[in-house]
Amino acid sequence: MNERRISQECLETMEFSKYFPIWNQLTPQQREMIAAKVTLQAVKKGTILHNDTDCTGLLLVKSGQLRTFILSNEGREVTIYRLFDRDLCLFSAPCVLHSIQFDIIVTAEKDTELWTIPADIYRQLMEQSAPVANYTNEIMASRFSEVMWLVEQVMWHSMDKRVAAFLLEEAAIAGTDCLHITHENIANHLGTHREVVTRMLRYFQNEGTVKLTRGIVELTNREKLAVLAGK
């Protein structure tokens, strides 16, 4: 029984090592430390994994898709970024980043498998390992670039451009022009009202760029949609 459990732990560690990009730059002791505490879990679509400033731990996606978003006092959502296979979420462990506090929510957009790295373990690794510290700084820079891009979109881009750009991005992620998404979902991603999105989509439909049916937005003219998005 013990041998079987140890074998399973070894398999999970080997799998984790393939997804954690700087595994080979850790010392044997550091690998042992993280392997002993990291946990793998499978979550269903819609599961809330992190809420506000709770220090959940760092989330490393094995497969699936996560969404991080902020919530206004009025209850309006806006997506900050998505996480896909091999992506690491830092903001789910704000206690690791002493000078930064983000009140964000992380949910599973699809059925997802992910590892949780305890915040205290990762903090120790950052203090001990230059590669871990550098890797963390690279992720931070990338995430802040995404946040600044979002701020630019909200401040300077009209809603028709934002909706068009979102539809093109969704089609690229889903790998299809037939998007199973509601007007409410789109509004939540963009931080606006459902009625605004409905008005934009009807305009797009009149322009021949999309076709609307219940719960589905089908892209019918990507080129024209790209022009509307300003691309």
> How do the helices and strands follow one another from N- to C-terminus?
HHEEEEEEEEHHHEHHEEH
Order of strands, widest sheet: 1-8-3-6
CATH homologous superfamily (4th level) name of the largest domain: Jelly Rolls
Low-confidence stretches: 1-7
Structural class: alpha+beta
Report, as a whole number of angstroms, the end-to-end distance. Answer: 59 Å
**Gyration radius from CA atoms, angstroms:** 20 Å
CATH domain class name of the largest domain: Mainly Beta
| CATH fold name of the largest domain | Jelly Rolls
> Strand percentage, roughly?
15-25%
Overall geometry comes to: elongated
Question: What can you tell me about this protein's structure?
Answer:
- The protein has eight helices and eleven strands.
- The strands form three sheets. Strands 1-8-3-6 form a four-stranded antiparallel sheet.
- The chain has helices spanning 2-19, 28-37, 119-128, 130-156, 159-174, 183-190, 194-206, 222-229, and strands spanning 39-43, 48-52, 58-63, 66-71, 77-83, 88-89, 104-108, 112-117, 178-179, 210-213, 216-219.
- A hairpin with a 5-residue loop joins strand 4 and strand 5 (77-83).
- Helix 3 (119-128) crosses helix 4 and helix 5 packs across helix 7 (194-206).
- It is of the alpha+beta class and 231 residues long.
- It folds into two domains: 2-155, Jelly Rolls (Sandwich), CATH 2.60.120.10; 157-229, Arc Repressor Mutant, subunit A (Orthogonal Bundle), CATH 1.10.10.10.
- The termini are far apart.
- The chain is elongated and about 60 Å long.
